[in-house]
Amino acid sequence: MEQARLLADIGGTNARFAWQAQAGAPIVDVATLPCAAYAGLEDALREILRRLGRPAPKRCAIAIANPVLGDQVRMTNHHWTFSISALQARFGFEQLKVLNDFTALALALPDLQPDELRQLGGDAAQPDAPIALIGPGTGLGVSGLLPDGRGGHVALAGEGGHVTLAVCASREQQVLAQLARRHGHVSAERAVCGQGLVDLHAALGTIDAPGDVAPALTAADITAAALAYSDARCVEALNLFCAFLGTVAGNLALTLGARGGVYLGGGIPPRLGRFLDASPFRERFEAKGRFRAYLAAVPVFVIQACQSPALRGAARALDGA
After folding, report:
1. What domains appear along the chain, each with residue ranges and CATH number?
2. I want to staple 59 with a disulfide (CB 3.0 to 4.6 A). Which of 5, 82, 198, 224 is the partner?
3. Which residue positions form the known binding site for ATP?
């Protein structure tokens, strides 16, 4: 127990926990709890320790879908809020590291194995070049790795999912207008996340059939219908989703100079399979005028790891990465 670590990857929907006996040891006892079932993070931590049948270890790392700017953490896409120092005191952690979940995922990218990735276009990744990371799930996470000049990388902690969304066609402009009526500022996350897919589908319904009462579909419903090509509006909504993701990912690649590759994380991309390949994603990723050839060479990798890689990144954070 002296070297044991409790690791957590907290998203807006699910909280994943795991145990690591010491630095470098396998990550084991992975368990997922639904965030909505617990009043706060403290309750979820107590539940996972009860299930493990272990006392709190001395070390804990928590990757969370939220900016971590000080002692008080308030989640963007969930109601949990907590004080880092109070949480540390309640559980007696000697070391508690709290970091953004996509910063943690970025730290894990060098550890991903070939069978945990699927390449979607582009050439080989350039060594010692910046790497970009973007991923839609409950929200839209963004991070990256920048070379540190010593053979390693520095992970970025930002909120790139909230950049203003750009559109490239009149149909998209109509959809954007519908989203603006609902949200005011239309960030990338407003379209490129689970709820965003629902809103895209609803916007298309309003444009094409004003006054009609459309059935209430979840993101999973829309995705399933689109993947089966059983509903034209669901197919269009998911294609719009992929197009917007491609636009934002291409912008990120240009901003970081990400010739080391762009990684697609989050819960949604691995579920799309070959639909993503046939979607407008790659065309929109490269559609940057004079820099089309530059982006055409940049590889995109879909992360399809069975175990949450952010847990590995959380472990790296405890190691001082």
Report:
1. 5-107+308-318 (3.30.420.40), 113-304 (3.40.367.20)
2. 5
3. 8-13
